[in-house]
Amino acid sequence: MAHWIPLQIFHFGVTASFLIESLLTTCVTDQTRPLPVVHCRDIRKAFGNMVAVADLSFDIQPRSCFGLLGPNGAGKTTTLRMLLGQSPRSGGVLEVFGQDIDEGRKTIRQRTGIVPQADNLDPDFTVRENLSMYGSYFRLDSKVMSERIPGLLDMVELAPRADDRIETLSGGMKRRLTLARALINDPQLLVLDEPTTGLDPQARHMIWSLIHQMKRAGKTILLTTHYMEEAERLCDELIVIDDGSLLAKGSPAELIEKYCESDVLEIRGEVEEIPIDALPQAWRTEKAGDSLYLYANDAQGLVQLSQRLTDMVCLHRRTGLEDVFLRLTGRALRG
Amino acid sequence: MSTLAPPRFRLESLAVWRRNALVWRRLMTASLLLHFGEPFLYLLGIGYGLGRFVGELDGIPYFTFLASGFIAWSAMNVASMESMWSVYTRMVPQQTYEAILATPAQVDDIVIGELLWCGSKSLVSGTAILAVAAVLGAVNDWTALLAIPVIFLTGVCFAAPGLIITAYARAYEYFNFYMTLVMTPMFILCGVFYPISSLPGPVQTAVQFLPLTHAVEIIRPIVVGQPITDLGFHLAALIGFGLVTTWIATVLFRRRLIQ
Questions:
Q1: Does B104 reach chain A within 8 Å, measured CB to CB?
Q2: Which of A156, A165, A335 is nearest to A243 (CA)?
Q3: Helix (H) or strand (E) holding B259
Q4: A235 and A304 share a domain?
């Protein structure tokens, strides 16, 4: 009989802890979604009198790809710099991995990978050394690095160039290396600031496929871009900002649905001759340069019109994020 | 963290030091040629040539007098050059610090890593001069090796004001002000070529406020093999200068790199 009592206590312990655990799990899942990786409430940044970012709020959910879109000078880079703790914010709540960005800077950095807009690979080192040097700033063990680096070089297809100097690489290769460098600490959050700007289509597609790969690997991605096609392909959710303020938030499909008609007819030529007043009231017209854009939920109507305009160049297509973007931020040129 | 807080040493700064050391190792031969070749020619030319006319100064053969002054000057010079031209290169054209700041390393680590690196470069160059001087017969005792840590300290202390200038710099030309207005006067006035006691009284007092004076006052007796007078005072002056300028440099770098 002697062994019975402890066993029973043990059993009770297990049951109790199981009960508490399941109770906790239920509470957590009932009350909240999983903790957002990035949580911003009314963050703002002012340089003297100039307000660069005004009361911006958004959350980035784990394992999602979040887009930060806006024209040049909209405040994207300033927002990113605040999120990365590279620029102190003037106000608001800013948490990454549930920690205040200022208090948890070091631990947040350990779990974040950054691909900056401008190339800042170390020109004094080779491809491989750039990775190991960067890892040393994370104080990664050399054993861990010697395991990781070959895999990263393979992933970005730079293994044959491992011992080459940086200046011998093409622009696309440098971007890929910068991406590999951002992964040296196996980050959970990957921040990409205009990752494909200035790249040729081949290089751009390669970066896109790498980003998809990162997403499948369960990483959370924050992306800024000027390319709406890129945002449409990659982002689960995005925000459009201009003049430092939020203009719109949602998935690419939601935004197109909300801010745009389903179809657009782009007409080039003597567009002044088109009797705009005679078009259906529901159609929206927009003029830019010598092009006229007709937005409507009436694909058939647009096609019929284009068939009548035989002496002009007409292009009919489904609307996309670019149309949303231009509608929200206007067609005026930015600095 | 307040931008005015004193600098904090963390191990990440050693990674910054290591980066520079690895780059230097690659170009080591050229660098060592400079560090050994230049003092060899200077000491031979000026030390022997001029020394024949000067004879002894303060009871020290001129060759030894000049060699010990050169060691201190070189520590200042090498650290200043590195903390201005090289640090600016890493900060602006290469954007190396921007990359480093995307990792857990912080501005303080960059500043301290660079200071240690500048001190290390001074150590190489100062030790090279010491070796050349020894080969040419200017050094009599192994105790001269005690100058090595002082050379390192001198380098670190002079790197900090260099970093202050760099924190404000918008172009390389900016450094000419510091070179002409600060470094050259110290080179001329702080006892590298002749004893301070030969200067007019008020100037003698004034040069006490120049840190190179104190570096020379410590390094020269060690190299020559004489007791150091007022070691505590000179060390305190040098270290105090280094600490204050390091603090200022850190604050300025935080402002320059984190906006």
A1: yes
A2: A335
A3: none
A4: no
Structural domain total, chain A: 2
Q: Which domain holds residue A240?
A: 38-254
- Structure confidence by residue, pLDDT tens digits, A165-216: 999 999 999 999 999 999 999 999 999 999 998 899 999 999 999 999 999 9
Q: Please report whether residue A244 resides in a domain.
A: yes
> Could A86 and B96 be called an inter-chain contact, meaning their C-beta atoms sit closer than 8 Å?
no
3-class SS string, A103-127: CCHHHHHHCEEEECCCCCCCCCCEH
Measured on CA atoms in the order A296, A300, A305, A311, is the torsion positive or negative?
A: positive
| Distance of residue B85 Cα from the nearest chain A Cα, in angstroms | 16
Kindly report, residue by residue over A222-277, the tens digit of the pLDDT: 999 988 999 999 999 999 999 999 999 999 999 999 999 999 999 998 888 888 88
Q: How far apart are CA A59 and CA A95, in angstroms?
A: 10
Domain assignment present for A331: no
Determine the Cα–Cα distance for residues A83 and A110; give it in Å rounded to an integer.
Answer: 14
Mutate which: B103, B107, B117, B258, vs A, most A CBs within 10 A:
B103
Q: Which of B26, B96, B104 lies closest to A120 in CB terms?
A: B96
Q: 3-state SS string over chain B?
A: CCCCCCCCCCCHHHHHHHHHHHHHHHCHHHHHHHHHHHHHHHHHHHHHHHHHHHCEECCEEHHHHHHHHHHHHHHHHHHHHHHHHHHHHHHCCCCHHHHHCCCCCCHHHHHHHHHHHHHHHHHHHHHHHHHHHHHCCCCCCHHHHHHHHHHHHHHHHHHHHHHHHHHHCCCHHHHHHHHHHHHHHHHHHCCCCCCHHHCCHHHHHHHCCCHHHHHHHHHHHHHHCCCCCCHHHHHHHHHHHHHHHHHHHHHHHHHHHCC
Candidates A114, A125, A128, A136: best to mutate against B (most CBs of B within 10 A) is A136
In which residue are the tokens 């806006």 written?
Answer: A70
In sequence order, the β-bridge partners of residue A250 are A238
- Residue B176 to chain A, least CA–CA distance (Å): 26
Residue showing tokens 């020290």: B60
Looking up residue A111, the CATH number of its domain turns out to be 3.40.50.300
Task: State pTM to two decimals.
Answer: 0.88
The nearest alpha carbon in chain A to B99 belongs to: A120
* Nearest Cα residue in chain A from B105: A137
Q: Are residues A125 and A239 in the same domain?
A: yes
At position A222, the amino acid (one-letter code) is L
Q: Which amino acid is at B160?
A: A
pLDDT, one tens digit per residue, over B199-224 is 999 999 999 999 999 999 999 999 99
Structure tokens at A175: 């971007």
B95's tokens:
């954007």
C-beta atoms of B102 and A116 within 8 A: yes
